[in-house]
């Protein structure tokens, strides 16, 4: 199998090709690992802060509201019971974590699979960051238009590549992130992927 390649893109044109690392961008796509990792990443984003008080957590209600017999009313032991206004909640939801553990090797394999899927599908491009020395949203839009791939698109750039960030961040259905922020769930969501050459090296180290 030939080594995967990705086009080097500038606004309005393609200037060449970059040969990608086969171990990262030509890896076997294992759907079950991708599924597990996406599930873990989505669960990690859940806050889990919803919670209510049970009858044991509600303040007050230490005394019996009225005597057991002779009042004509139903017997009551405490005003903290669920049937009372201000009482506790039956089976109250509690704060909890939703974390799902995925082994490091499995996470890396899922990341390689998601990157390989873009490389094999022709939806991976390399941005020539030198073309964005001066930020220009118009230039960013021209690059996407000439490339002709579907959105949503993820653009991966380093912190130093400010021109790339500013050129793409205001475009519709385009998200610009750092290499350290790339997650499998984002790669699965995106229909196309753009990476600067500096980010490509950092991303390959993460996925190795």
Q: What count of helical segments does DSSP give?
A: 7
The helix/strand series, from N terminus to C terminus, equals: EEHHHEHEHEHEH
CATH topology of the largest domain: Ribosomal Protein L4, Chain: A
Strand content: 5-15%
In CATH terms, the superfamily of the largest domain is: Ribosomal protein L4/L1
Number of domains: 2
From the 3D coordinates, which CATH architecture of the largest domain would you assign? Answer: 3-Layer(aba) Sandwich
Question: In CATH, what is the class of the largest domain?
Answer: Alpha Beta
Instruction: Say how many strands there are.
Output: 6
- Kindly name the structural category: alpha/beta
Could you estimate the helical fraction of the residues in percent?
Answer: 25-40%
Compute the average pLDDT.
93
Shape: elongated
Rg from alpha-carbon coordinates = 27 Å
Biggest pleated sheet: 6 strands, mixed
The order of strands across the largest sheet is 2-1-3-6-4-5
Instruction: Give the CA-CA distance, first to last residue.
Output: 20 Å
């Amino acid at each position: 199998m030939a080594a995967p390649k990705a086009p080097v893109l500038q606004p309005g044109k393609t200037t060449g090709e970059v040969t990608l690392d086969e171990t990262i961008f030509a890896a076997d796509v294992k759907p079950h690992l991708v599924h597990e990792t996406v599930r873990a990443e989505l669960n990690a984003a859940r806050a889990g802060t919803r919670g209510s008080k049970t009858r044991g957590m509600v303040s007050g209600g230490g005394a019996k509201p009225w005597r057991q017999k002779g009042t004509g009313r139903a017997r009551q032991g405490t005003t903290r019971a669920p049937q009372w206004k201000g009482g506790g909640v039956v089976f109250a939801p509690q704060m909890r974590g939703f974390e799902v553990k995925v082994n490091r090797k499995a996470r890396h394999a899922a990341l390689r699979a998601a990157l390989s899927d873009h490389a094999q599908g022709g939806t991976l491009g390399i941005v020539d960051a030198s073309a964005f020395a001066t930020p220009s949203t118009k230039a960013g839009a021209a690059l996407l238009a000439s490339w002709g791939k579907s959105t949503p698109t993820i653009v991966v750039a380093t912190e130093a590549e400010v021109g790339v960030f500013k050129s793409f961040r205001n475009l519709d259905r385009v998200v610009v992130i750092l290499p350290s922020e790339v997650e499998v769930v984002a790669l699965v969501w995106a229909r196309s992927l753009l990476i600067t050459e500096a980010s490509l090296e950092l991303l390959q180290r993460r996925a190795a």
